[in-house]
Structure formats: structure tokens, C-alpha cells
Amino acid sequence: MGDKVKFEIEFVIQSSPQLLYQYISTPSGLSEWFADNVNSRGEIFNFIWDGAEESAKLLKRKSDEFVRFAWEENEDDSFFEMRIIVDEITKDVSLFITDFAEEDELEEAKMLWKNQISSLKQVLGST
């Protein structure tokens, strides 16, 4: 397996930081847009897509600001983080994604996030 490359993408989302945080930090919120179903036992979140299950450990979180997960099967220090950023002047809310992907899967990984965030925006009623 090659080295993973860190990438970041920002999405403007019309939502309050508090509401958005519920959708990125709770199993019920994540089930609405990120995976078909999400269960958690303590720090371990189980994400289910089309019958396949992947587990991630919740590494860090700060209420209304960010969550950081690491996939259980990772053998490196990669993680994925969803950080809520509010522009101090315009009060625009953005979701800042940090993730890692293999060099040859970078565009695919970004596209996957774009599709996921598009689902999140639909759930939130954000355009």
C-alpha cells in the first residue's frame, strides 16, 4: 500500500453550527447522510453501506466545532475530520473536510465527499 495523501475540501452549508454538529457527530445524524446505518458503542462507530460494515474510532471531538475519526483497519496515522467553521464577518457556515487517500484514488475520494455532502445539504434543506 502506498503512502496516503492528505487532502482538504471546504463546503459552504446553510445551517447553524449546532444543527450541523448533530449531523456529523451522532449515529442518528450520520445515518441520515453519511452511511445507510450507523451504530456506536462508546468511541467506536460502525458505519454500514449496502450491507458492508466498517468501524471507525472517534478520536476527538469538540461540541459544535469538529469530530475526528480513524478507520479501525488503518495501519497508518490517517483520519478523517469534519470541522465546522463560521466566518466571523459574514457568519457563513462551512464544513471543512480533512481526509487521506492513496495518490491514485484522490479524485475518487474527493468525489465521494462531494456526493456525501450533497446528501447532507439535502437533509438539512441547504442549497
From TrEMBL:
Membrane-spanning residues: none
Annotated ranges, domain START-like: 1-125
Domain of life: Bacteria
Signal peptide bounds: none
SUPFAM superfamilies with a match to the protein in the record: Bet v1-like
InterPro entries: START-like_dom_sf, START_2
This protein's name: START-like domain-containing protein
Source organism of the structure: Flagellimonas lutaonensis
